[in-house]
Amino acid sequence: MLLRGAALLVVLAGCPLDHELPECDVLDTTSVMLVAGDLDNHTIDITDGTRIPLIGAPQGGHILLVGASVKAAHDCQLVATASLRDTATNRVLGLEQRPLLLEQQSNGWAQPRHTLDAMPNVAVCPSAASSTAVYDHEYKLEVALTTLDGASIITASAMVIPTCQASDGYCTVDCGAN
Amino acid sequence: MRLRSLVVTALLVGCGDNVPEYEPWLLEELAPQDGMWIRTPEFEVAAGAEIQDCYFFEVPGDVDLWVDRAKLALNTGSHHMNVFRIKTIVGLDPANGQPIDLGGVQGTVIHGADSMECWKSSNWADWPLVANSQQSSSDSPVIDWKLPTDVATRFTPGEKLMLQVHYVNTTDQPTPWVGRAGVNFYRSKDGDTQELGTLFATQQSIRVCRSNPKPSYSGTCAMPAGTHTVVAANGHFHSRGNEFRIWAWDGVSTTRPDDSQLFYASERWDEPEMETGLDLQLPQTGGIWWTCDYQWREPAGGCEAVDARDPQHANDCCYTFGPKVESSEHCNVFLYYYPKVTESVTCF
Fold first, then answer.
1. Which chain B residues are Cβ-neighbours of A63 within 8 angstroms?
2. Pairwise CA distance, residues A94 & A86, whole Å
3. Is the omega angle on the peptide bond into residue A120 within 30 degrees of 0, that is, cis?
4. Do A91 and B251 touch (CB under 8 A)?
5. Which CATH number fits domain A19-174: 2.170.120.40, 3.40.50.150, 2.60.40.2550, 3.30.70.860?
6. Contact list, A56 vs chain B (CB under 8 Å)
7. Could you tell me if B53 and B111 are in contact, meaning their C-beta atoms sit under 8 angstroms apart?
8. What is the pLDDT of residues B218-276, one digit of tens each?
9. pLDDT per residue over B125-151, tens digit each?
10. Where are the domains of chain A?
11. B218:A98 CB<8 A
């Protein structure tokens, strides 16, 4: 009886509690859409050549708020690693890895929540690795999704153009050439 | 008179709670030819309180001060002590402080209890790090940090500096006596030629919630091109932090470096080790990769204070970025290298 109770506890310990956001059960590992967020709670689908807003971050500097949408049946989470690479030098300007918090949409996709914490905040300005201004130049965005245990699910990339917002006068200074 | 009463109070507390008798640390006072010294006054830290004060002063003298040794001293209970070079004034202006005698220098102070500006990190976002300590245990209250041969920190006469001191008096991080901090910067006399540089990196918009209790955040921080040798490092998070790790990173890979590249690891949030004996050459055009692992915990006093400062108002007991130990979290890297190539390497 005691053993049975202990076994039950072990099983329960391996499962998320009811209130915890579960890991995504990705329905189609060939379908992924890179996305970016802005401060107006818009989600921007990313393809080659997409302009991505440089966001003045609460703690200083400028970030790209980037992640990915996948096909999943519930609200869920994965781990996302996002990075911005200067293809002229192959150096990574900034990289961040964090939980990717996804909300199910009616079209079968799960899309990152509209909050700053829900997808990687890739800190790109200032960056000691940039060979030119970060804004208005093309860089390679790379996103890798894994399970919570680190098993690879999907990777994707696109050439993007980080872009200062007209209302953010400091952006061209912070993201200017070193 | 006030100081004496504080010490008496501390001694009384010590008798009742079996706390060892208060034995203040001692640092020597330095003559100008030997360097620069700073002492804060002793101050009371009430039970349950968090205190953060910002002290401002100028580097004395009329020639550059090259410093190849520092002693950083803290009474038990300190959460951190940081020294920064003052650059852009945003909301934290030394001119708005009250005059204060800091021992070897005169300056001003802005108390966090009087002004929230001393708590807002955006106020010192472009202020380069000079030195820091998070070690305040009663058996080891002083870090004696000697820089490698030929390496020194350079100050210019009249340069404005800030010493920021954070104290906590809670069950997790008690202050049994009084708060107090001191720094000695020892003048180099052997002709050091390589300047010490610093790196400060922090994770943005972290969130440790009941519904997501074991998040992990990683980031990279690239160094300018060149050869850089790390001599010291420490990490900083609050009590939900389980493990802080820093690796050397090649500047190209997007997966975590192999553990053979790990050069700093700490599982202590309250007294994280300051590694001062490092001699690590980073990869050319590389930098660092760092990771903070967290475990959510129910706050001792309930979730009310944590929920109150959640900008998302999610009522999920989420610890978010902020300076208060009890109700917020951090994930910061303090790193020291040579030769200095830029005023400050910052990643945030």
1. 204
2. 10
3. no
4. yes
5. 2.60.40.2550
6. none
7. yes
8. 999 999 989 999 999 999 999 999 999 999 999 999 999 999 999 999 999 999 999 99
9. 889 999 999 999 888 999 999 999 999
10. 19-174
11. yes
